[in-house]
Amino acid sequence: MLEIESRLSEVRGQIEQLSAQKANLDDQVAFAILTVTFGVEVQAINEAAARWDPGTEVEQAGASLVGFLQVVASAAIWLAIVGLPIILMVTLIVAIGLFVARRLGFLRRTSVPPPPAAAEG
User: Fold this and answer.
1) 0.85 cut: is pTM over it?
2) Which pLDDT tens digit goes with each residue over 18-46?
3) In which region does residue 105 sit, left (phi positive, over 0), alpha (psi from -120 to 50) or beta (all else)?
4) Contact 9, 1 (CB under 8 A)
5) Residue 8: enclosing H or E segment and its boundaries?
6) How many helices (H) and strands (E) does the chain have?
7) What one-character DSSP code corresponds to residue 115?
């Protein structure tokens, strides 16, 4: 019986000790500060900056300019080879038509009568 009582006292002592530790931890938790930091990850910006190369941009702009000039030159070549002969032929046909129409009398040149002379007084 004495042994049980001593064991019981020992367990009660442990319970009191653990209760004191719990109370101490509760007090510490009451004064604890929780710090949370939110931030934006700038990895996408860094990747975009890493991929940008001024030399590549200059090359692409130069290639675009050369492509544009090639299109303009091609249009000028087509106009010189195809357009000008067609324009010359149409102009020649219209000129011949006007010449013939004047010769046949369809188109007569009308002369504008001179203005009347002012009477001197």
Assistant:
1) no
2) 999 999 888 887 777 778 787 766 677 77
3) left
4) no
5) helix 2-30
6) 4, 0
7) P
